[in-house]
């Protein structure tokens, strides 16, 4: 017995030998280390006394169970407890072994918590082995794809991949299997009933002990989003069409009223876009210039026809009234929700970089580049065409005006580009009208 006692004392697990009446017969060294202090040891033995009596009253000679025990300082730990009935010298004893499973229990609880989160997700969360077999399939996946977990776990993930995107999908899987991830990759998948639908996938490597054992796929059905995007695109297209129709109507209304300068706004718009394109402005900026060009003289609807069509030079009073058309145009278009600074371009198209223009006498960097371009285009068209009070001055005179005014009244960069376009034949005069052959 003494030899067995020595083995008992050296057991790596905390152990205690109890008499059937609950009295402590012996404890090993590991027990003393784990449950230091007489009070703690007594609490432990008291906590398991009921379990021991139930075992002794049953036919079982061995039981295994898990129990949370309170240690000193109100600390609590989980233990797996093994009780075995032993007999010696006609007496009944119980050998109790304790295994601390606190950390393992925490890990299990964490895994259970994460599993609960995964299973309650509306997104499909799927794990796939390296040979493309489904290893796990949450409720979100059941809802999105129609397959029950029991029916698809162990099957090929390629069930949900249409043939048209098989090669693409397999390439993403291969990359993930080698350690890289792809986030929000959009493609199409196949439902159990056969219909195809758009999804956004995040594909990541699945690791276990630093080894990649498969791939995790998080899939979101984006059918509703795609439908909303399509509806938004249609609405945007309709609004854009309505805006362009409004611009055309406003421009046409002005031309119907002032037949002598009919087409002037369209010509200025065309010349401005031609210059802006040569200056490598963005498509968005060029579109704003085009709209502003079509509307830059809309304020003239507020000027009496007697002044607009007067076949002689205007008096100072009449000229002062004419100069108000920039501000009038600004007031007309300022409440239209353009995506570009159309109202400011309309207001500034008669400003000059030396401050000699109107209506505000702005200069240099105070002026929008779009307004500087429109100013040059306006001068080129106006001087090249006939006016009620004078015949056309001609293209040469118009070009001379902008060359003389380059860097003084007009932006030099804009003037240089305009001259180049004429030299290259991109802009030219045909039948008394400036045209662009871009």
Question: Can you describe what's shown?
Answer:
The chain has 438 residues and is of the alpha+beta class. It has three domains: 2-104, 2-Layer Sandwich (Beta-Lactamase); 122-221, PAS domain (Beta-Lactamase), CATH 3.30.450; 229-436, Hypothetical protein af1432 (Orthogonal Bundle). Helix content is 47%, strand content 21%. The protein has 17 helices and twelve strands. It has helices at residues 2-10, 29-34, 38-57, 102-120, 139-145, 149-152, 166-177, 223-257, 264-278, 283-295, 305-308, 316-322, 325-333, 342-348, 369-384, 395-405, 412-423; strands at residues 15-19, 24-27, 62-70, 76-88, 91-100, 124-129, 134-137, 182-190, 196-208, 211-221, 427-430, 433-436. A five-stranded antiparallel β-sheet has the order 2-1-5-4-3, with helices on both faces. Strands 7-6-10-9-8 form a five-stranded antiparallel β-sheet. A two-stranded antiparallel sheet has the order 11-12. A hairpin with a 2-residue loop joins strand 4 and strand 5 (91-100). Helix 10 crosses helix 15 (369-384), helix 13 runs antiparallel to helix 14 and helix 14 packs across helix 15 (369-384).
Entry keywords:
five-stranded antiparallel beta sheet; 3 domains; Hypothetical protein af1432; Beta-Lactamase; 438 residues; alpha+beta
CATH class of the largest domain: Mainly Alpha
Spatial shape: rod-shaped
Largest sheet: 5 strands, antiparallel
| Biggest sheet, spatial arrangement of strands | 2-1-5-4-3
Unreliable residue runs: none
Give me the CATH superfamily of the largest domain: Hypothetical protein af1432
Kindly report the average pLDDT value: 87
- Percent of residues in helices comes to 40-55%
At CATH's second level, what is the architecture of the largest domain?
Orthogonal Bundle
- Which band does the percent of strand residues land in? 15-25%
CATH topology of the largest domain: Hypothetical protein af1432
SS-based class: alpha+beta
Based on DSSP secondary structure assignment, what is the total number of beta strands? Answer: 12
Q: How many DSSP helices?
A: 17
């Amino acid at each position: 017995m003494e030899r067995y006692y020595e083995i008992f004392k050296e057991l790596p697990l905390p152990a205690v030998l109890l008499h059937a009446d609950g009295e402590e017969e012996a404890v090993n060294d590991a027990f003393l280390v784990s449950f230091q202090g007489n009070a703690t040891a007594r609490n432990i033995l008291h906590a398991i006394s009921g379990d021991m009596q139930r075992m002794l009253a049953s036919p079982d000679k061995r039981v295994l169970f898990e129990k949370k025990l309170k240690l000193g300082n109100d600390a609590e730990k989980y233990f797996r407890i093994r009780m075995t009935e032993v007999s010696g010298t006609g007496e009944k004893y119980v050998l109790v072994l304790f295994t601390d499973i606190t950390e393992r229990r925490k890990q299990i609880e964490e895994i259970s918590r994460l599993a609960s989160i995964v299973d309650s997700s509306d997104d499909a969360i799927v794990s796939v082995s390296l040979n493309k077999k489904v290893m796990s399939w949450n409720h979100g996946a059941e809802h999105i794809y129609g397959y029950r977990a029991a029916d698809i776990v162990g099957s090929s993930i390629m069930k949900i991949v249409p043939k048209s995107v098989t090669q693409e999908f397999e390439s993403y899987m291969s990359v993930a299997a080698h350690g890289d991830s792809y986030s929000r990759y959009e493609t199409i998948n196949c439902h159990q009933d056969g219909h195809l639908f758009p999804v956004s996938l995040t594909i990541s490597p699945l690791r276990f002990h630093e080894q990649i054992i498969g791939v995790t796929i998080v899939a979101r059905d984006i059918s509703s989003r795609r439908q909303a995007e399509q509806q938004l695109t249609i609405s945007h297209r309709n609004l854009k069409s309505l805006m362009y129709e409004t611009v055309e109507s406003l421009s046409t209304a002005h031309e119907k009223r002032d037949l002598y300068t009919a087409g002037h706004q369209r010509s200025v718009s065309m010349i401005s876009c031609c210059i802006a394109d040569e200056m490598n402005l963005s498509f968005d900026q060029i579109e704003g210039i085009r709209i502003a060009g079509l509307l830059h003289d809309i304020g003239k609807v507020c000027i009496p026809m007697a002044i607009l069509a007067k076949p002689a030079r205007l008096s100072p009073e009449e000229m002062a009234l004419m100069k108000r058309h920039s501000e009038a145009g600004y007031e007309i278009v300022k409440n239209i929700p353009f995506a570009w600074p159309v109202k400011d371009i309309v207001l500034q198209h008669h400003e000059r970089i030396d401050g000699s223009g109107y209506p505000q006498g702005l200069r240099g960097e105070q002026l929008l580049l779009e307004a500087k371009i429109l100013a040059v285009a306006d001068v080129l068209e106006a001087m090249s065409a006939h006016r009620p009070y004078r015949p056309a001055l001609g293209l040469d005179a118009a070009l001379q005006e902008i060359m003389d005014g380059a860097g003084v009244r007009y932006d030099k960069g804009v003037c240089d580009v305009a001259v180049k376009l004429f030299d290259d034949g991109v802009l030219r005069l045909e039948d008394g009208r400036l045209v662009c052959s871009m």
